[in-house]
Amino acid sequence: MTFETINEPVSVILLLEHNNTRPYRIKWRNQRYQVKSVSHTWRERIGSNHELHIACETTTATSMHLAIDLSDLSCRLVSTGVES
Amino acid sequence: MDRAISYIAAPGLPIQMEVLRWPRLKGRPLVIVPQLKERALIRAASQEALAAGIQKGMLLSHAQKLCRNVTVLPFDDGYYRAGSESIARATGIISPIVEPVHLGSVFVDISHVAQNVAYARERCECVLRQIRTLGITPKIGLASNKLVSRIAAAAAPASDIHVVDPGHEKTFLYPRLARYLPAVDADIWRRLELMGLKRIGNLAALSAGELSILFGRAGARLFEQANGVDFEPVISARPQTGKAYGRVLTPDTNDVEVLLSHALRLAEQASMELRAGRLNATRLVLTLEYADYKKTTTALRVSQPSCEEQKIKAAVRTLLERGLKRRVSVRILTLQITGTIPHVRQLSLFDQPLLEKRRQIDHALDLVRQKFGSAKIGYAQTVCDS
After folding, report:
1. Could you tell me the CA-to-CA distances from B146 to B2, B7, B93 in Å, in that order?
2. Interface confidence (ipTM) of the complex
3. Strand order, beta sheet including B44-45
């Protein structure tokens, strides 16, 4: 698997379920990725802000790591992992 | 039961956390490096990578030659810290006296809640279940002191508890290898192997005097540890006595300006953390690791302990001037703060406008860094990365 650091803003459709936040679809570089499963979620603190991090698998076999800034709900694609 | 100390450890936490984040990496050779550079040194490796001959501290380029399909990931400090904090939170359900040791490892004092060994074990099982729900596999050692509980955790199978009953410490320790003792470093272990004193029982058979003759000052500690003696308490908020900041240079360089900019960046980082912890540095150590793997270490005792950025930078500049004696390119720069004292501001009888101005600048920089992160602002002298 090859991982690449991206750090680019992305558009994400988020599902706010009972007690968790799950990405449904990600639009990055004019391409849509359907999320198959969420592998892990965690929070990190950047300065005075909190970021929600979500690692997920897409239907195109691409692993994606998203960071959602909880102060303005902006989404960032942190890194991707592709089967090499 | 006089004391009940449990040592909770998540061995290879960075690897465990990466597999949690990227489940497809499970069962594959995986290494973690500080930076994704060919000359970076391996910080953590999965069991599969270790089986392929990869070791911690090895050059990434060498590891990639040994195992072609190894997956390389950058060290994600924030992510691992989040995992480590969740372990510490999970242990908080049995006792408030939790002492973090390093990433993913904590000592918990449960003496006041556990009246007997069975109850202490039950509490540890509760923590074990709690940590397993996080997706992390821990190991727990339960004993009457920190030393034995730490060795018990190392002896425990994955996701299990090893209990050493009070009074059975020596029976537990004697057959174990002496390198499990904290007082045994690489040099002492090499000497012990040569002398045929590999087991803790072999050391315990010697007197304190004999061990002192063989190992000098470390001998007395070895004698105590070999006999399972450790009275050190579990301290929740241990004052930080030292910290290291490092940087792998890409490419290796012997350009003084570039080295200085990197060293000053480390000084900025160190002084910011000192101010946040309300500490003053009393001793600084700068280590230069050259391309031929030789090291130069220079130390400086700060005459007036301080956390001011300019003073720390001046000390680092002196250390670099003293340390740079060779013309070989430098590969790794490490700045260590090995001595600290609490920061107390001494008021002056006279006006010191320059000092006050510097303090205000430091404060403003800290505020910006706290809000936007430490990489967002710095002095121009630290941006010479070419």
Report:
1. 13, 7, 20
2. 0.83
3. B44-45, B30-33, B71-74
> d(Cα B207, Cα B70) in Å, to the nearest integer?
48
Measure the CA–CA gap between B89 and B87, rounded to whole angstroms: 5
C-alpha dihedral (B335, B340, B343, B345), degrees to nearest 10 = -80
Total count of residues recorded for chain B: 386
Provide, as residue numbers in chain A, all residues whose Cβ is less than 8 Å from the Cβ of B276.
none
- Residues in CB range of B76: below 8 A, 6 or more apart: B14, B17
Whether residue A43 and residue B23 make contact (CB cut-off 8 A), yes or no, is no
Question: Can you tell me the distance from the alpha carbon of B270 to that of B245, in angstroms, rounded to the nearest whole number?
Answer: 7
Kindly list the residues from chain B whose CB atom is less than 8 angstroms away from the CB atom of residue A59: none
Q: Please judge whether A1 and B371 are an interchain contact, meaning their C-beta atoms are less than 8 angstroms apart.
A: no
pLDDT per residue as tens digits for the range B39-95: 778 889 999 999 999 998 888 889 999 998 899 998 888 888 888 888 988 888 888
pLDDT tens for B132-162 read: 998 899 999 999 999 999 999 999 988 889 9
When CB atoms are compared, the residue of A46, A63, A83 closest to B373 is: A46
Strands lying side by side in the sheet with A62-69: A2-9, A74-82, A62-69, A49-58, A31-46, A21-28, A11-16
Contact B373 A44 (CB under 8 A): no
Q: Which of A7, A13, A44 is nearest to A26 (CA)?
A: A13
Q: Are B135 and B193 in contact (CB under 8 A)?
A: no
What does the pLDDT look like over B181-191, one tens digit per residue?
A: 999 988 899 99
Strand (E) positions, chain B? 5-9, 30-33, 44-45, 71-74, 98-102, 105-109, 139-143, 161-163, 243-253, 279-290, 295-306, 330-342
B46 φ, ψ to 5°? Answer: -75, 165
| Interatomic CA distance for residues B88 and B131, integer angstroms | 9
The C-alpha angle with vertex B238 and arms to B233 and B239, in degrees rounded to 5, equals 140
Q: Is there a contact between B176 and B31 (Cβ–Cβ < 8 Å)?
A: no
Interface test with chain B among A4, A40, A43, A57, by most B beta carbons within 10 Å: A40
> Do residues B340 and B242 lie in contact, with contact meaning Cβ atoms separated by under 8 Å?
yes
How deeply is A55 buried, as exposed, middle or buried, from its count of CB atoms within 10 A (0-12, 13-18, 19+)? buried
Angle between helices B77-91 and B13-21 (to 10 degrees): 100
Instruction: Provide the token pair at A15.
Output: 């599902």
